Amino acid sequence: MRLPISCGEEGTPRGDVLKSRPVDRKAKVGGDAEPVSPSDRASGYLKAICRALSILILGGTGCISTAPDQTRTGDVSSQPLVAGEQKGALDLPGIGEAPGGSPSSQPIVVSDPLEPVNRVFFYFNDKLYFWVLKPVSKGYGKVVPQPVRLGVKNFFSNIATPVRLVNCVLQTEFKDAWIEIERFAINTTVGVAGFGDPALNRWHMESSDADLGQTLGHYGVGPSIYIDWPIIGPSNVRDTVGYAGDLFLDPLNYLVPGLECDVGVMTYETVNDTSLKSGDYDDLKKAAIDPYIALRDAYYQNRRSLIEDSEEHPAGASR
Questions:
Q1: What are the two backbone dihedrals, phi and then psi, of residue 133, each rounded to the nearest 5 degrees?
Q2: How many domains does the chain have?
Q3: Does residue 19 form part of some domain?
Q4: What is the mean pLDDT of residues 67-93?
């Protein structure tokens, strides 16, 4: 028995209706979208290249983020930093400090279970520094005079005042917090939007270097495992959390519109800072038998000294 053929309008079989309606493939694929002009395509390529260059330049900061600070660790204990020793002390080394003790009274044990991965990231940051960041910062330094570069550094430091101010208060270093307020008021007005630093040059008010990682360490949070992040550089679990928290306190992240502009500003700040301290990482690497271990130990010594300095001032005390 044959099934009846369903008909469309005016008795036309449905199969004929489908055959009589040509498929508009252009409408299915992209509608009436206009073709991209060569100028728009070139603009897109240029933006992609700028993003890639910014990431490469920022990657070089992973090598120089702690090299300059090693000069401030002369008063730190000469206890060697080792990984994997004193296994029975803590099941998870660095999660917390031993009760009743301070970092200065205990040997530092660098927990580095991710060393194979960290060494890969260290190599990545090292090559980015020598191949991209160092040449760019050298060229920038030859074009821009040093006084201008110092002014740019002062400007960015002045904007980041809330980061230091909040952490000084959290560490109960109220005198340092007040100095940060005074420095911001003086440098923003007398220093012309922060490009000058008369608070230091004339009134000898030194800026604090407080951050959230130090604040966590001040209250007994241990560093946990060592992490050498690509682009960011040496860190640990505690300081990584602190770094993320400080990003929320930095007004620059709210003043600059859009992620692309923010990355561009950070890239420029990195190039400017590197042009003022070029050669520090080079010297550390030349003097070290194992540059990875040297940078890791310098980072841990520097962070310990900063936390010790904050713990020398109990709650309610001032410097």
A1: -65, -45
A2: 1
A3: no
A4: 38
| pLDDT, tens only, 15-45 | 444 444 444 444 444 445 456 565 666 566 5
* 179 phi and psi angles, rounded to 5 deg: -65, -40
Sequence-ordered alpha helix ranges (H) in the chain: 14-20, 25-29, 38-59, 61-64, 115-128, 134-143, 146-159, 161-170, 174-189, 198-201, 212-218, 237-249, 252-255, 259-276, 280-287, 291-311
Query: Backbone dihedral region of 211: left (phi > 0), alpha (psi from -120 to 50 degrees) or beta?
Result: beta
Whole-number Cα distances in Å, 267 to 55, 160, 253, 310: 8, 16, 13, 30
Query: Where residue 49 falls among pLDDT bands split at 50, 70, 90?
Result: low
DSSP 21: S
Say if residues 58 and 233 touch (Cβ distance below 8 Å). no
C-beta neighbour count of 135 within 10 angstroms: 12
Query: What does the block give as tokens for 131?
Result: 């191949």
Give the structural domain span for 287.
75-311
**Cα(229)–Cα(48) distance, integer angstroms:** 23
Stated as kind and residue range, the H or E segment containing 228 is strand 226-229
Distance CA 306, CA 300 (A): 10
Helix (H/G/I), strand (E/B), else coil: 5: coil
